[in-house]
Queue: 2 jobs
Job 1
Amino acid sequence: MGALHEGHGRLIGEARRDTECVVVSIFVNPIQFNQPEDYALYPRTLETDAAFCDARGVDLIFAPSAEEMYPWAQTTFVDVTLLTDGLCGKYRPGHFRGVATVVLKLLNIVQPHRAYFGEKDAQQLAVIRRMVQDLMLPVSIVAIPTVREPDGLAMSSRNARLNAEERRSAAVLYAALRHVEDRVRGGATGAAGLRREALDIFAREPGVRLEYFEIVDPGELQPVQQISGPVLAATAAWVGGTRLIDNITCLPAA
Amino acid sequence: MGALHEGHGRLIGEARRDTECVVVSIFVNPIQFNQPEDYALYPRTLETDAAFCDARGVDLIFAPSAEEMYPWAQTTFVDVTLLTDGLCGKYRPGHFRGVATVVLKLLNIVQPHRAYFGEKDAQQLAVIRRMVQDLMLPVSIVAIPTVREPDGLAMSSRNARLNAEERRSAAVLYAALRHVEDRVRGGATGAAGLRREALDIFAREPGVRLEYFEIVDPGELQPVQQISGPVLAATAAWVGGTRLIDNITCLPAA
């Protein structure tokens, strides 16, 4: 969706290493926004983005207009069920339908052999992986780790909206996730208790309104009670008027 | 779905003329049946079908098992909205979701340049055309006219289930459609009146239970009141325990 940062830079870098021709799609997709003001406010910085891509050896930028992607009222939609019931899916009805639909369109237009997605959007990544498997699409999905600021905040185009105080508070998402990761590595197995500990950490930042903090299985994103293998800890929170998400895959001690 | 007849033969013949390599997919798709007994009863004649294809110069038959097409519980579905509200969509909830989903999977697997569909399944054809446009799929959809028996009955794998008396009664679908086509060509413009005339024709065959007879626009399949251009007359009826469908595109006098 543009407003490129070092998280995107890493996707481009990996693609540049792996493949002959690197295409970056830049499209702020209207059908995945629940709130018109979020769509209107989403940063659009095509000129800077183009320079960013240029500097990293991108071969082609595909930056269609909304009218080119939706020349008539879209009537066909892709629904990935089950995986979209919880986490962000619960709070953003229709969001993943919009994401899956536009990603399928972009894949059909660009027809890449490999497509690179960031792990920061863990539910999106799981949804796209499942869509590709279920629809037997001829593309490999490559997941790229989240790039973080020095205090751990995951890079996001939305971070630019935070004022200084909000920016400081925003570090609580990563702090809570890291706490849970450490506890799981240390042998903790009860998800309910870990979730309460994470909520306590959030409670220390009254400027941050937690939307969810969940511990789920990494494949189908269903809630886990007893941790006996890798789990995904995922959270969404409002910092002022900005909604941020983050996640960590937690591995129990071997 | 196999049980190949001369309607399919015409699809193959056109593809054979147009293209270098002809692939026939034969797959009775479980997720498009509303009634388990219809799925169970659907004819499966792979050996005869293979000979049929051989005789017509088909290069490849793709006949996967249900386990190959659905190796795990399918969670991704394609919904074509609006066009599926009426006609068969009203009576077969989930049917077109199952059709769109399997056709997209088959297209992704086979990756044809052109795909051939029969006009007999008019709503299916419209749904697939719209899906291809909406999802920007790299394939051309080719529509092939319905092949009919001497009394006008549209060829269908389901016709084999009719007994002699049912087979005779089944001609009423085409008779009613032809009546409407003639009246439109003759200048009739009121769809409600034409629909009543068609219903009167059906009433003469008490062994046939009409499900619907509708006059709709051929693109989005929405009901038409005043006929001023091409319209689709479409019908579904039960003849004994067998559900038959048929349609004609009606052109007003120039």
Job 2
Amino acid sequence: MSERDPYAVLKALDITLPVAGAPAAAYVMCAQSGNIVYLSGHLAKQDGKPWVGKLGDTMSTDEGRAAARAVAIDLLGTLHAHLGHLKRLKRIVKVTSLVNSTPDYTEQHLVTNGGSDLFLEVFGQSGRHARSAFGVAQIPLGACLEIELVAEVD
Amino acid sequence: MSERDPYAVLKALDITLPVAGAPAAAYVMCAQSGNIVYLSGHLAKQDGKPWVGKLGDTMSTDEGRAAARAVAIDLLGTLHAHLGHLKRLKRIVKVTSLVNSTPDYTEQHLVTNGGSDLFLEVFGQSGRHARSAFGVAQIPLGACLEIELVAEVD
Amino acid sequence: MSERDPYAVLKALDITLPVAGAPAAAYVMCAQSGNIVYLSGHLAKQDGKPWVGKLGDTMSTDEGRAAARAVAIDLLGTLHAHLGHLKRLKRIVKVTSLVNSTPDYTEQHLVTNGGSDLFLEVFGQSGRHARSAFGVAQIPLGACLEIELVAEVD
């Protein structure tokens, strides 16, 4: 359980959680088994549309980091919708970050920090997670980034 | 627990489950911990051989969707072999779909629907899963698609 | 629980476990939920530095297999540090192996065997795992390989 009020942090950061997105097909944005919640890969979006780009080509690491922060906010929106209240989150357990990359781009970890840092700000120690970040050939709709997540809830 | 008989659906769809494949090395096709089963990434096959191809180059989205359906059938074969009876499946929890893609191909989600739709047909609501789909640079043996899965069983 | 003494096997193989690495950002090298431990993606290293290379271009399959064995040793180091004693490991449940690959390289499974084989040597049947291996466009810091792991502990 987080020692801080995640909503107070979000307000201090001037972040408004989005209404959780609806999947476009025969899957769901999150699925719970026992007290583990699996969140689907969330695509980076800007102004409600896919945030298109490829790191090492059309996007800089700083832009990628901003995209990761945006995806993390969407993931929080999905968790809030699923749990009713983020206080029910015990821990972010695992984050997997898929970065749309050229064959030469090697800063996927810096991009992903944009999401990891936000989880730490919002949840404190409960936001610390195991993590993998790597470069993929492409992402649905050309999005620059896709992040999925495993969380423990009460 | 599915509200429908998965074998009746499979029969209606004229699908015969394959004998579960054997891994080629020091790993297993599925591993259970508690009531969670992790299935290894299953490669797309055609006529028992790797279904070779790359989306955006040598394969169309429709062909990819057919490959995803074929992998889903193989995953069901592995689940059937592991569980003895698919009625023991409580839910497909998470699907991860790795699509062999050129750097420009962006329809990994449509390809993956070929598998997601079959799970929904066979299991109903119990078949709805969290999901990630993305494009990878290559896949063992040149297969066009690899899908792994997490399921909850009783 | 392994039927063999993993430390005796490591000694017989002349393997010294490394001091577990520290993450470079707001994440941790492993996170436990219940009796499941998720290990972060560990990058291949050589002489303490990222083992840079791309399969199908600057590295051979045999070199990749050696890198996978090196990553597996680092994963064991992290497990040892987290658990206090490897006897507490009940099973390696799932291994995901991300191989830095050209668009044409198709031997990710052979590379990954370097890690899978070591787990089998060290833990016996408890080391057998579900597995996915595939080729990615790039990896942080240009490493040739990244492996993450899910384990069950007592």
